[in-house]
């Protein structure tokens, strides 16, 4: 049985291994296979996001994390930095459930949206998020914060033509006018 909860500092040490396992799925895409060997978020970065209350884990019946979603609140938006599910636990709805936890939390906090960057054409990337209501932002819609994230990803070796920014707008009538 899998349960979902906010991540705790003690979970941080397990999260890079989950990200590494999840990255193995990219080995099946020749031009992106290098991602399986790329660096992961550090334990210190995970601890930072956990301390903000914006990271969730899926844990097995032994209480061990098998998946996580790490995010950060930026400009009334919950920005998802990483959603990772161990390779042997993928395609079981765990990632979807973590994302639904994050969406519900963002709504409770009164945030305006969720955002992320991802691959346009990898089935478990943009097409997955679109099924949950995210939309790919057209170039003119991409705010400077997300442009900066995309620039850093391209500088790191991600193919620019395959990357995109996505957003899920939330309805919250209590937000200040921009």
Question: Low-confidence segments, ≥5 residues, pLDDT <50?
Answer: none
Q: Determine Rg (CA atoms, Å).
A: 16 Å
Number of helices: 5
What class would the helix/strand composition place it in?
Answer: alpha+beta
How large a portion of the residues is in β-strands, by DSSP E?
A: 15-25%
pLDDT average, as an integer?
Answer: 87
The succession of helices and strands, N to C, reads EHHEEEHEHEHE
Please outline the major beta sheet.
Answer: 7 strands, mixed
Cα end-to-end separation: 44 Å
Report the count of strand segments: 7
Strand order of the largest sheet: 1-2-3-4-5-7-6
Principal-axis shape equals globular
Helical fraction: 25-40%
Assembly type of the chains comes to single chain
Descriptive notes:
It is a single chain. It is built from 5 helices and 7 strands; from the N terminus they run E-H-H-E-E-E-H-E-H-E-H-E. Strands 1-2-3-4-5-7-6 form a 7-stranded mixed sheet, sandwiched between helices. It starts with a strand and ends in a 9-residue tail after the last strand. The chain is an alpha+beta fold and 178 residues long. It has helices at residues 15-23, 43-51, 94-109, 126-131, 144-155; strands at residues 3-6, 55-59, 65-74, 77-85, 113-119, 135-136, 163-169.
């Amino acid at each position: 049985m899998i349960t979902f909860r906010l991540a705790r500092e003690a979970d941080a040490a397990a999260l890079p291994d989950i990200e590494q396992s999840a990255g193995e799925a990219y080995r099946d895409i020749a031009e992106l296979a290098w991602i399986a060997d790329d660096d992961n978020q550090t334990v210190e970065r995970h601890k930072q996001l956990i301390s903000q209350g914006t990271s969730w884990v899926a844990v097995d019946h032994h209480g061990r994390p098998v998946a996580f979603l790490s995010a950060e609140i930026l400009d009334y938006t919950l920005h998802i930095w990483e959603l990772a599910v161990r390779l042997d636990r993928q395609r079981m709805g765990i990632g979807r459930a973590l994302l639904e936890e994050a969406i519900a939390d963002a709504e409770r906090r009164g945030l305006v949206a969720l955002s992320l960057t991802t691959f346009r054409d990898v089935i478990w990337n943009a097409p997955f998020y679109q099924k949950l209501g995210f939309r790919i932002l057209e170039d003119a819609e991409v705010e400077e914060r997300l442009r900066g994230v995309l620039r850093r990803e391209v500088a790191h070796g991600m193919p620019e033509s395959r990357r995109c920014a996505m957003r899920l707008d939330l309805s919250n009538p209590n937000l200040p006018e921009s």
